Amino acid sequence: MRIVFFGTPASAVPFLDILAAEKGRVAAVVTQPDRPAGRGLSSKPSPVKARALELGLPVLDPEKPSLAAAEIKSLGADLAVVVAYGRILKQDVLGAFRLGCLNVHFSLLPRLRGAAPVQWALARGEAKTGVTLFWLDEGMDTGPIFSQKETAIGPEENAAELLERLTNLGVGLVREALADLERGAVRREPQQGEASLAPLLRKEDGRFSFDEPARAVHGKVRGFCLWPRAFVVLRLPKGEMKLSVLSAELEENSPKVGLPGTVARVGRDGGVLIQCRDACLWLRTVCPEGKKPLAAAEFLNGLRLKADDALPFQA
């Protein structure tokens, strides 16, 4: 079975590796074009392209996949496997494969359709998620399902950790799917259940205030740890400051100690316990805009604040 692989970020590389393990199986790799990166903004290939070149595989990197539709079709591949490619495939590409295009999505479809399912699962406090292999159509993650695997989300798990776990689950699912397809077992089950969306992240999605429930703030810290990071805006004598919270921990069954933003306690481990709307949250590591990360207690000392004082946050 000949396969064309579509993918772009580092999280897609393990999937390319298992497909390329059988010599001659990958007809080509399609990825996004080189982009400026680093301080010098020099052009840099995507992680998938870099790995494909290491493996000696043909690479196509059109700005839009339709621009390479004729070349893709000429490959005569049986199947496309798509992992975080980052571009919508139209019918001119979808129709180029005998079996179709099998997409790896990091949620239990139809829940969390869209570009950022891992981040939104955490930010919304989902208790479980998983990986879905489904056949692409022209809708947004609406095609029929080949297979799914569910997993519980850990109470302190962040987006980086969950993405790594889901990647490992997904690699296993793809390996099983290839074995099934090789013996002619093709499944196309309609999606069932209530749909929800996980749209592309914006910088402003990371903003919070301490007037929100503690679990909601904690979810944003965990979900947006890679980007855009959870942040609160503080009103200081010298002006407003954007403070990102890189790590935090819920204080279970904590009593109210004051208004939202009140410093309940400063821990010996460098954490700061802050009152939110309904409960308290330990801030562990923070990062003032334009500066390096530091322990929350160290940041608090710099503001000359102590227990029972309040962080001057903007709602």
What topology emerges from the helices and strands here?
Blueprint: E1 3-7, H1 13-20, E2 26-30, E3 35-37, E4 42-44, H2 47-54, E5 59-60, H3 69-74, E6 79-83, H4 91-94, E7 100-105, H5 117-123, E8 128-135, E9 145-152, H6 159-182, H7 214-223, E10 230-236, E11 239-251, E12 263-266, E13 272-275, E14 280-288, E15 294-295, H8 296-302
Parallel strand pairs: 1-2, 1-6, 2-5, 6-7
Antiparallel strand pairs: 3-4, 7-8, 8-9, 10-11, 11-14, 12-13, 13-14, 14-15
Task: Return the domain count.
Answer: 2
What is the CATH level 1 assignment of the largest domain?
Alpha Beta
Distance between the ends: 56 Å
Largest sheet: 7 strands, mixed
**Average pLDDT over all residues:** 96
Strand order of the largest sheet: 5-2-1-6-7-8-9
Continuous helix count: 8
Return the string of H and E elements: EHEEEHEHEHEHEEHHEEEEEEH
Rg (CA only): 23 Å
Task: Describe this protein with a few key phrases.
315 residues; Methionyl-tRNA Fmet Formyltransferase, Chain A, domain 2; seven-stranded mixed sheet; six-stranded antiparallel sheet; 23% helix; 27% strand
Structural write-up:
- With 315 residues, this protein is of the alpha/beta class.
- It has two domains: 3-182, Formyl transferase, N-terminal domain (Rossmann fold, 3-Layer(aba) Sandwich); 203-302, Formyl transferase, C-terminal domain (Methionyl-tRNA Fmet Formyltransferase, Chain A, domain 2), CATH 3.10.25.10.
- 23% of the residues lie in helices and 27% in strands.
- Strands 5-2-1-6-7-8-9 form a seven-stranded mixed beta sheet.
- The protein is elongated.
- The mean pLDDT is 96.
